Amino acid sequence: MSVMSLQPKSHRKALEIALAAFAILIGFIRVWAARNTINPDGISYLDVGDAYLGGHWTTAISDHWSPLYPWLLGSALKILKPPPAWEFPAAHYITFAVYLAALLCFRVFWITLIRHHATRRSQYQKLTVATLPEPVWIALGYVVFIVSSVEFVNLEYIGADMCVAAIVYLISALLLRIHTGATVPYQHFLLGVLLGFGYLAKAVMLPLSVVFILAALPVGAGFRKILLSAAATAVGLALIASPYVWALSKHQGHLTYSESGNLQYAWTVNNLPFWWAGESSGFGTAIHPRTKIFDHPLVYTFDGPLRGTYPGWYDPTYWLAGIKSHFNLRQQLVRLKLNSQIIFGFFFGVFQIALVAGVWIWYLFGAGRFPWLSGLQEYWYMLLPPLTAAAVYWPLWVEPRYIAPFLGLFWAGIFSGVRMPDSAESRRLVICMPAAVVPLTLAAVLASTVAAVDQLGTSPPMQFQIADYLHAIGIRPGDRVGAIGRVMECGWARLARVQITTEINHGSDAAFRASSVPVRSAAIAAMFSTGVKAIISDSREDSGCPSGWRSAAGTGFSVCTP
User: Fold this and answer.
1) Alpha helices by DSSP H, 284-397
2) What is the pLDDT of residues 61-82, one digit of tens each?
3) Is the peptide bond before 8 cis (omega within 30 degrees of 0)?
4) pLDDT confidence of 1, banded at 50, 70, 90?
5) Which residue, 7, 77, 522, 546, has fewest beta-carbon neighbours within 10 Å?
6) What number of other Cβ atoms are within 10 A of residue 232's Cβ?
7) Contact residues for 97 (Cβ-Cβ < 8 A; gap 6+)
8) Average pLDDT for 19-36
9) pLDDT band for position 371 (50/70/90)?
């Protein structure tokens, strides 16, 4: 008797409702805890969204930030019209809405996967292979979603990765349907459309589209059918992606789908500084770099067409235009080593180690001489895209949020490849593994959430307090200001609607504070010479300001006015 038949449908439904409720609750708590925070990428996404909605297309089209998430974020904020004190909470709650959409997309994919295996139950019985019960699929699926979304994509982070995850889940569902049903051209066309939206969410999805197209080809069909399928996908992809590729290429002056890869390699492998202005020989000539107005400490000013809160991160490819990365074997090996450690921690850290160990036990007790090989070969099309995505990021820069959108498809392939003998012992093992893994993993997520609430949830809205203080001392929206310290963490500037146009960056702020009083005064004078109305430091300052430093509403920030 199949284990599946021993599970009442009402129990399976109750299990799914409980896990979905846990996912929604834990997601909301994490978003709520981070409501008053903002990351540098989030500021740029908000600025780019404003530019698109304001019709400033020439400055909105960015070589670094893909447009889908700014469109979504900007449109939602334009409808909601939150006051400044509520702008960052509203942005986080929009992220939560995207998270809920991703949950629905994941369910579409996972239910498609469950139904696929249910239709193959008779085939498994002929092969005397134990089937995974539906409750096991449900439990493991929601655990994978919660870990990948809450912990790895990181719900406290304002970024496009959750949009990518939602689109990848829909692509995964369609990929599975293509391989398990009658292939029809419209499915491949729809796959291309989804891949196009994936590119609009994140540029890396365009080269990865080639892998998804290969994974979707009807293996064993005739050449004509394979060609038609690939063509239908390409047409759908071109329909969505080509307008933005054209606009971006026109903006850049040559054919391109993104300039971020070259820039990322220069930063992370060649170790060129973020403030590169052509100093390192052999790496090109800066076309329009930041302007250096003081040597020690280094003071830079921005003189260009960009009008974001912090122009340096609004579109870094503008300031670093002309940079040419170089392959260096030693530097590449160092980066590969560091990224390998990150990937190892990704899979063998606290949130996935129990799952990895449990699945390893399943494979260890598999049926046949090489059960893992035959099972994984059958579901190669599920494993190819996530493994390729990891390989694309591996030489450059790896963060868990980059590869997390592909985690559901990866584990779907791994779970689907399990081949265990149809015996009472195997069926018990099939049940016992998730019974141990699921509570342990969810407990780790819960503990992490409690820590996040303790760290972030009780923090005051400091960024708004600084912005409110600036308005109180006469700084008005549209004014230009200077900044000292961690300049990219400038949520206060976004809320005050001011623009940072000169800076002593985090690499030079220590030198500023270690300098003599006359040097500090000269550096401050150089910053004021650019026309800024105030200079804001993220630390307490005691000298250098002609009018004396003021404490910004007890936030730890200091403000200097002429």
Assistant:
1) 311-314, 316-319, 329-348, 353-364, 371-378, 380-393
2) 888 899 999 999 999 999 999 9
3) no
4) very low
5) 546
6) 21
7) 76
8) 97
9) low
pLDDT at 176 exceeding the cut of 60: yes
| Buried b or exposed e, range 345-357, using 16+ CB within 10 angstroms | ebeebbbbebbee
Residue-wise pLDDT for 128-157, tens only, equals: 777 788 999 999 999 999 999 999 999 999
Residue with tokens 């980066």: 335
Type of residue found at 131? T
Amino acid at 458: T
What is the CB neighbour count within 10 angstroms for residue 275?
A: 18
How many Cβ atoms sit within 10 Å of the Cβ of residue 81? 9
Say which residue the tokens 């799952």 belong to. 355
CA distance 113 to 176: 7
Structure tokens of 167?
């689109």
* 363-391 CB burial, b ≥16 within 10 A, e <16: bebbbeeebbeebbeebebbbbbbbbbbe
Within 8 A by CB and 6+ apart from 427, the residues are 3, 130
Q: What is the C-alpha separation between 538 and 75, in angstroms, rounded?
A: 31
- Written as one letter, the residue type at 147 is V
Query: In a 10 Å sphere around its CB, with 0-12 CB exposed, 13-18 middle and 19+ buried, how is residue 447 labelled?
Result: exposed
Query: Residue 516, Cβ neighbours under 10 Å: how many?
Result: 10
0.90 exceeded by pTM: yes
Percent of residues, the chain, with pLDDT higher than 70: 96
Amino acid at 51: A
Please give the Cα distance from 280 to 9 (Å, whole number): 66
Gyration radius of the chain's alpha carbons = 26
Helix or strand run (H / E) with residue 291: strand 291-294
Supply the DSSP symbol for 405.
G
In angstroms, how far is CA 351 from the centroid of its own chain? 18
How far, in Å, CA of 354 to CA of 438, rounded?
8
DSSP 485-525: ESTT--HHHHHHT-EEEEEEETTTHHHHHHS-HHHHHHHHH
The two beta strands, 558-560 and 535-537, are: antiparallel
The number of beta carbons lying within 10 Å of the beta carbon of residue 83 is 9
| Least confident stretch, 31-35, 42-46, 127-131, 468-472 | 127-131
Quote the longest CA-to-CA distance of the chain.
86
The total number of residues written for the chain in this structure: 562
CB 331 within 8 A of CB 271: yes
- Residue among 412, 400, 392, 327 at smallest CA distance from 111: 412
Cα(449)–Cα(278) distance, integer angstroms: 44
